[in-house]
Design goal:
Layout: H1 13-33, H2 39-56, H3 61-73, H4 76-94, H5 97-106, H6 114-129, H7 132-137, H8 139-150, H9 154-171, H10 176-185, H11 189-215, H12 226-238, H13 247-257, H14 262-279, H15 284-293, H16 302-307, H17 317-336, H18 338-347, H19 353-371, H20 374-391, H21 396-408, H22 418-427, H23 431-434, H24 439-453, H25 468-471, H26 480-493
Helix pairs in contact: 1-2, 1-18, 2-17, 3-17, 4-10, 4-14, 4-15, 5-6, 5-12, 6-9, 6-11, 8-9, 9-11, 10-20, 10-21, 11-21, 11-24, 13-14, 17-20, 19-20, 19-21, 19-24, 20-21, 21-24
């Protein structure tokens, strides 16, 4: 006798909130009470969601497993890029490329424009390393000390440091969040970065102007360069500093402009980093070691050693594993229809493109606040709204942009978020004290939503060069039949799951 399959039930909002609420509680306890990572709470949340899906909604384990696999496989390109980025960071530090960028960047400081210069310096370092945490925890600490010597408000200095650090983190192709956002939205990495520049450049420009204006009150102060000189000396003693090394990031940027795909472009950057490492005196064994495990700086200067101990493929595994845990949770919610139930309620408020992007931004902030992690604030809304953006004829890069404009930067504004807690610890400033001065982080979601409501730089699927061969021949219309046909062809061409 054949086994009759269970009758599936439609997930209601009440049922859907249960696993979300429990997972949020588990994450909160793990972070706030035990200072633990969120990986295991996410796995536990996935188990709870699976039990509800199987025993409450009538799904089979095979169906749930299929949803998890599809969820993870959709971001394999981003995961591969993250692994390569680990290699690139290791070789760029070992080759003296990152140290050279830091060395020259530190020399732009001046008493009058200390705050604006701090923004610029942290932007350069974060752009080079792809890490806001590394930037704030090293040079940021040094800048806080300099600010204290100048009599500059420490929370104000912290706001400048965080603004610059998150600008670089947000647009650097080396950043894990910059790779995760397009992976979640279904956009290409460099298309995502270029599309972000429209809103990011406005937020960044306003931020610089504000800090320049505020900094004028400190005109005439004498800059205590003792700490900065210590860093410069330690770097110059450990590495051969040569402006020619700056050609490496320039070449990578040129490759990006020439539309070289992300993986080949980054691999070329790794090869150039390896050559520079040999120039610094490293042999093949050392190059292989730093590619896998990263560099370990031993200059004797604490700040420099912290800054230049980084990179390696293995060091990216923590981030990759967290992403996979988040996608497992998201995959269960998506396959069972629980994510759709939550999203549909929120989408009732999204009548226009502007309101859709506003709802996405609010969702990112909501996840950042409740789940306490920026990766979740990108991954979960990305999964929730990915199909909705396509159904409304919007290019995936619109979604990836607001995920970063809201999910990445607002993480530092939540005291119990991993980013907010980390920034506060590194800089010795309570999160609530520096929030009013993190102008870039505050402005980014506001500018992005404003652009959406005014229709500025909002790209449709028809205008998306990545989908030109599918859209333009059919003269894209928003009828349900044509839209479904287009979405299926677009997904198939880009290796996406429906």
């Amino acid at each position: 006798m054949s086994k009759v399959p269970k009758q599936k039930k439609e997930a209601t909002l009440g049922i859907s909130i249960i696993p979300v609420a429990i997972t949020v509680a588990l994450i909160g306890v793990a972070i706030l009470k035990y200072g633990a990572d969120v990986h295991i709470p996410l796995v536990m949340g996935s188990v709870i969601a699976t039990l509800i899906a199987v025993y409450g909604l009538g799904f089979t384990w095979k169906e749930i497993e299929e949803g998890i696999v599809n969820s993870i496989s959709g971001t394999m390109q981003a995961i591969l890029i993250l692994a390569i980025i680990g290699v690139l960071i290791g070789t760029w530090i070992g080759g003296g490329i990152v140290p050279t960028m830091i060395y020259y960047g530190l020399q732009i400081l001046s008493p009058t424009f200390f705050l604006a210069a701090s923004v610029l310096l942290c932007s350069v370092i974060s752009l080079a390393t792809g890490s806001s945490w590394t930037t704030a925890g090293t040079v940021g600490v040094a800048l806080i000390g300099v600010a204290q010597g100048l009599g500059i408000s420490v929370p104000l200095a912290a706001g400048a440091i965080i603004s610059g650090a998150y600008f670089g983190d947000k647009i650097s192709p080396l950043s894990d969040t910059t790779n995760l956002a397009p992976g979640m939205a279904g956009a290409e990495l460099f298309d995502h970065i270029k599309h972000m520049l429209y809103t990011t450049s406005v937020s960044y420009g306003i931020t610089l102007v504000i800090f320049i204006f505020i900094g004028l009150q400190y005109r005439g102060s004498v800059l205590d360069t003792t700490e900065i000189n210590g860093i410069l000396n330690a770097i110059s003693e450990a590495y051969i500093i040569n402006p020619l090394l700056l050609l490496v990031p320039v070449i990578v940027i040129v490759l990006v402009a020439m539309k070289v795909p992300a993986l080949p472009g980054l691999i070329i950057g790794c090869i150039m980093g390896a050559i520079c490492t040999a120039f610094q005196g490293g042999d093949l064994g050392y190059i292989l070691d730093i590619s896998n495990y990263g560099t370990v700086s031993e200059t004797g200067h604490a700040v420099v050693d912290e800054l230049l101990t980084n990179g390696g493929m293995q060091n990216m595994m923590w981030t990759i594993s967290l992403i996979m845990c988040a996608l497992t949770f998201g995959g269960v919610l998506e396959k069972s229809g629980m994510m759709a139930a939550i999203a549909n309620k929120l989408l009732l408020l999204a009548k226009s493109t502007g309101s859709l992007i506003l709802v996405t931004a609010v969702t990112c902030l909501f996840v950042n606040t409740l789940c306490g992690d920026q990766y979740l604030a990108i991954a979960l809304p990305g999964k929730m709204y990915r199909n909705t953006y396509r159904e409304r004829g919007l290019a995936p890069r619109n979604l990836s942009r607001i995920l970063e404009d809201s999910g990445t930067v607002t993480s530092a504004l939540i005291p119990w978020n991993t980013c907010g807690a980390t920034m506060s610890t590194f800089l010795g400033v309570p999160t609530i004290s520096y929030i009013p001065y993190t102008f870039f982080n505050i402005l980014s979601p506001i500018i992005s939503v404003a652009f959406a409501f005014f229709g500025i730089t909002i790209m449709t699927l028809e205008e998306d060069p990545a989908s030109e061969q599918y859209v333009r021949p059919m003269k894209y219309k928003k009828s349900p039949g044509e839209l479904e046909e287009y979405v299926q062809s677009y997904q198939k061409a880009h290796g996406m799951n429906a």
